[in-house]
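Risk register update: the risk of archive-format incompatibility is retired. Evidence:
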Amino acid sequence: MGGVDVVVIGAGMAGVTAARALAGGGARVTVVESSDRVGGRVRTIRDFAAAPVEAGAEFVHGARAATWTDVRQAGLRARPVPYRYSWFRIGGSTRWLPLQLLHPGVWRAFDILRSLHRLDAGDMSAAAFIDRKRYRGRAGELARLTLTAHLPGGVDEVGVGGLVADGVLHLEEGLNHRILDGYDLLPHHVATGLDVEHGFRVASVAWGDDGVEVTAADGRTVGARAGVVTLPHGVLASGAVDFDPVLPAAKRAGIDRIATGAVAKVLLAFEERFWPRRMGQLVCGSGPITLYWPTSFATDGPPVLIAYATGPRAEALSQMGHGAAVEVALADLARHFRGARPERLLTGSRVVDWLTDENACGGYTYLPPGAVGARAQLAAANTGALVWAGSATVWSPVADTVEAAYLSGLRASREASAILTRRPGAARRPAARRGARR
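Archived output:
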């Protein structure tokens, strides 16, 4: 393959956003992608129900997300899912959130948000924070949900300093929107007109000040004056891609300090709805599932529930296989909605396991205790003509979201454009080839 101005590794949201911005500025851009589609962890399934069902990212977070401009330009329909229509499983009962909050047992945890913003003992695990604040019983359940429901890590793994720095608490304050036409249409819209080489599984990346060369597992190569890495953090951490020369110590430290956690979804279609019509989500303080989403909130759409599991719960589902995972989710639903007999109403099921997807190696990331600042290390433009993007490289307004990936692509396009401006000329192979590997 001939040389180009920029090679972008990965056709997820970050990759296509960076490529579009660069191509719009006149650069010759090639995107290399190992799978047969664009979108990465934005993946919509259209053959499961009468309406699109999300296997990956679920919502546009907040009314001011940077992606709204493209959502509107693409003509996509969106429906808000207000947080106030949440049901919670706390203390052995499944009830509407305001009713749960009336129970005196949860009141002890009402200061948790203020306490998180006033940490005076340094970073610590969520478990240590809960113990330090002496949240017990229902208050302990609510605290665990607040600290881990949005993250794919257990209470012993998630750092509260990182949770605050990553803006995760904003997810409990904003208004989520579901794309009714399917979330995958957003990256497809952004990718319109781009040169995307599918089936290109990157095996190695040679980089230097004078250019980048990307080699696929089948031996194909792309040389470019600059490159953009948008590989998911899970893939970077797995060591599946070699970098020559080895990445700087600070970059490797950023990769090592960030953690990618497991995410799994069990898609469940039923003959009829047995949950409240205006239930936007059901958040579970205990049990095998983190939360449930109906795909049709307050509408007469298909009766489909998405059982969403993160961290240790997702790891357990991953190990048990499709049939057992579906049975576990159905039994859990029977616990929440007594007398519903969901197993008798089931018409279809599918399990999506991001942990075993070789193009993702997990769902998304979180910061363990002591890892604040690691995202900046990963994002740093300190590898010559190779710059970095992806949802794990952004921490504002909220880390590791579709918006984060989008914003990282815009940042990386500016950095790559600056390289092209400083180093005019034809694409070439990097001069430094030391045979070292990462």
